[in-house]
Known about the structure:
The structure holds two protein chains of two kinds.
Chain A: E1 4-10, E2 18-28, E3 38-46, E4 51-54, E5 58-65, E6 71-78, E7 83-89, H1 99-103, H2 114-117, E8 144-149, H3 154-163, H4 171-177, E9 180-186, E10 190-191, E11 195-200, E12 210-217, E13 220-226, E14 231-233, E15 239-241, E16 244-249, E17 257-260, H5 266-273, H6 277-284, H7 290-303, H8 305-318, H9 327-336, H10 341-353, H11 358-372, H12 380-393, H13 401-417, E18 426-430
Parallel strand pairs in A: 1-3, 1-7
Antiparallel strand pairs in A: 1-4, 2-3, 2-5, 5-6, 8-9, 8-12, 10-11, 11-16, 12-13, 13-18, 14-15, 16-17
Helix pairs in contact in A: 3-13, 5-6, 6-8, 7-8, 8-10, 9-10, 10-11, 10-12, 11-12, 12-13
Chain B: E1 2-3, E2 11-18, H1 43-58, E3 66-74, E4 81-82, E5 89-90, H2 97-111, E6 118-125, E7 127-130, E8 133-137, E9 152-154, H3 155-161, E10 169-176, E11 179-180, H4 182-187, E12 209-211, H5 228-240, E13 242-243, E14 250-252, H6 253-269, E15 280-281, E16 287-290, E17 296-304, E18 313-318, E19 321-326, E20 333-338, E21 340-347, E22 356-363, E23 368-373
Parallel strand pairs in B: 2-3, 2-6, 6-10, 7-11, 10-12, 17-23
Antiparallel strand pairs in B: 1-3, 4-5, 7-8, 8-9, 12-15, 13-14, 14-16, 17-20, 18-19, 18-21, 21-22
Helix pairs in contact in B: 1-5, 5-6
Amino acid sequence: MSTRLQLRVNKVMLGEQALSGAVADVIPISREQGAQAYKGVIIPVSSHDTKEIEVLPGRYLVQAYLPSGNRLSIQVDALPEQTTPAVLEARRTANEWLGWQDLIGQRAGEPPSLARENANFAPVSPPEPGNAPMGVMAGPPATLRLAQSVPDVSVWTNLHELSKLRNGFPVEHLLQTLNPTSVQVLAPTFINEQAASFILQPQGLPLGSRHYGIVDRSGTIDLFCLPIPWNRLDRAYNLKEASIDIAVPLAREEYVGVAVHDPDLGTLLGYIATGRLPLANVITREGTDAHTQMMNVLYRKVDNPFAAAASAYVLLQSDPAPNADWHPWVTNLAIWFPWLPDGAVLEGAIRLKFAATDEDVLAASESFLNAWNRGIPMFAPVLRLLLDGVSTLVGDPDTNSEKLEGVLPKIRSLARAMATDQAFTSLRFGVRA
Amino acid sequence: MHQVPQGGAATHILAIGVGRYPHLVGGTGPRLPDHQGLGQLTSPPISARAVADWFIANFNNPGRPLSTVRLLLSEDSPQPFMNSKTGLVIPVPSATIDTIADAFKAWKADGDTYPDNLMIFYFCGHGIANGAFTALLAEDFGKDTANALDGAIDFYRNRLGMNRCKAKQQLYLIDACRTTTDMTVYAEDYAGRVFVQPQTKSAGNLRPVLYSTLFGQQAYGRVSKMSYFAEALLAALSGAGGDESQGDWRVRTSSLHLAIEANLTRKANAGIATAQISPADDLITFDVHYMLAPPQVPVIVSCRPLAALAAANLRCLLAGALLQERVPANEAWEISLPVGSYDFEATFPGGQYQPGRRLGQYVYPPERNVPVEVAP
C-alpha cells in the first residue's frame, strides 16, 4: 500500500461541492527524506469529496488558496503505507446558501462579522420562485427581473443612451432597451438581513439567446449577463444544466454576485473575477485524465461556449507564446457561436497581441467590429479586452478607423458603468449609490 | 533619487506619494468647490518613500539590476531623501501633474532602452474611479476649478499607452481608493492626463496591476504611518512573497499578490483594516526579486481563546532554545522567522489559564498563524 494524503476543503454549500474548488500547495517539511513539493494541486471544496495524492512518508504543510482570496493551511503527518486525511476548514457563512458566493469572493457571501461566523446554519425555507409577466411589481428590493433577448447590436446604443440618465429612470425603460422576448419577475429563493438569493435552475433552454438579470434598488439599477444555459457533464458524462445563483446584497452600493454551481468550473469564475489568473490557469490547464479530455473536447467547445470563452480568456492572459496550440479554437469559438461576442473579442485580442503587420492589425480590428455587432460581451474582463483593443486601434490608418471611432464612445460608456471585479458583465445605471 | 547605468537590461522604478492636496479639504490653497469630501493624507509620502528606499537598499535581480529610482512626493513638510546606498541627501520633487508627466516620460524612455527591462510603478494617494477608469490625483488636483481632473493621471490610458514601451515586463502597484464619485461620472471620458498613447503593433507586454482595494472600495492608510498596502508590499518583498518553485527563493508577481492578499486579509479579519482585499488585473507570473537568503516569514502567534493573550507570556523556540518571547499584551504577537520548524508556548504567570504549546510548527511563506490553545 502506498502513502497518500487525502485532501479536502470542508465547506457546506447546500449539499453541493466544487470539485475544482481550490488550488493547493503541498510542501514537505521533513526535507531530509527527499520528499518533493506538489504545487498547484486542485482539491475539492466539499463536505465529503476528496483528492488523493501519493507522497513519501513525512510531515507536510498544505496551503490552499480559495477564489475568495482566503488562504487555509494545515500541517499533517503522512504515515507510511496509510492514507492520511488533510481537511482544511473554510470559514462559515451566515447561511449555508451563501456558501458558493463566499467561495468565489462575492461580497454578498462574506460573513458580516466574526461573530456571525459562529451563528448556527439555518437555511431559510425557500419560497417558490414566482413567475410574473412584465410590468408586475414585486416588493423592493428583493426582486429579480430575468430577461431573455435575441443578440442584437442595438443594445450598445440603447444602453449608452440610458447611461446618460443619472437621476434614475423606471426599470421598464431598461427592459425595453434589451428588446426582450420574455421577462420574468422572480421572488427570492432565500433571504436574510444581508442578502437575497435567487437560485435559477434552467432546464431545456437552448443555446443562442442572451439572458440578463436586472435588480432595481431605489433607482440604482444593476444589469448583469447570465450564462444560461451553463451546460456541464456529470460524472456519468451526461449533460446537465448548472444552477445559477444570484445574490443581491441589500446594501445597494454592493454589486450583485453571480455564481455558477458547476463542480468543475464554478470556482474558475471566482478566480477570474478577482484577477487571480495564475490560479485560474491551474484549473484551466487541469490534468489530462479521461474526464478532463472529454470536457475539453466535447463540453467546453460545443456544449458550453461560456466555459470555453472563460478558459480562453485565462489562457490569453497567462500564455505569452505566439501561435499557441489553443489559438485556433478561439477562432472556432468566434465562428461557431455568432450570438456570443466573447469569441470574436478574444480572437481580436490574440490578433492584436501578436500583430506584426498591417494585415494583422486590420484583422484584429475586424474581429473587434464583428464582436461589437453581436452585442455586449458575457464576461466583464472580455468587455475590458474589447475596450483595450478598440482604444488601441482607433486612429490607426491600417484599421477600419472610422467604424472604430463610431463604436468606441459606446464601449467606453458601458466600461464606465461596469463593475470591474465581477466575472460576468455587470453594469450599473441610474442613481449612483 | 538613484541612478546606476547598467549597460543592459535593468529595473526602473517610479514611486509617487501624494499627501498634500492644496485644493482639497484642509489644504492651503483655494478649495475646489467640488472637492468630493477628499482631504489631506499623511500616509502616501511615507509609503512611497519607504518603497523607494526598499528598492535601493534591498532589491536584487541579477538579470535586471536596479538602474533608476524616481521618487515624487507631496507632503506637508517636504523632507529630502537619503539614498541609503550612496549616502547622498537629495531634495524630492513635488508630485504635481507636470512633474509626474516628466518623470513618467523619462521612466518610459528608460524602459525603451532594452526589451528585457523591468518597470515598476507605485502610486499612493487619492484615487477616484468610474468603472474601468481610474483617476490618480496629483498634488494640484483641483487647481483648475473648471477642469479639476487636469491634475490627475488617467491610469487606464497611460497603462494602455505603455504597450508601446519596449520593456516587456511592467508591474503597476496602485495604492489608492477606487470609489466612484460624481466628478468621474460627469467627466465621462476624461480621467486625467495621458502621457503616452497606445500603439497598435505592440510587443505583447506583460502589464499586471495589483490594487490595494476592490473597485468601489476605499483603501486605508494610517495617520503618519505607511499604508496597509505598502506595509504588505514590503513584507511580501522581504520574504512573505517568497517562492521556491524555480529552485531558489524569488518573489514573483503571483506570489507577491498572494502575500499582499494574505497580509491584508489578516488585518481585515482582525478588524484593523476594513475589507481591504487586493485584486489584480492581467496578473501573469514573472520574477521580480531574487532573495539572497531564505525568506523572513511573518508569524502571528495568538491564544485561543483570544482573551488569554492579555495574560500570556509567549515564547518561540528553535530546537529547544529560546529565540524570542513577549510579555502579556492584548493583541497577537507578530514576529518574522526564517523558513523552518519552531515550537511556540503560552504560559501564564498569574495562573489564569493552563500553559499551552504548539510544537513543530512549520513557518513558510506567505505567513503562518499559530494559535496556541489554552484552557482555564
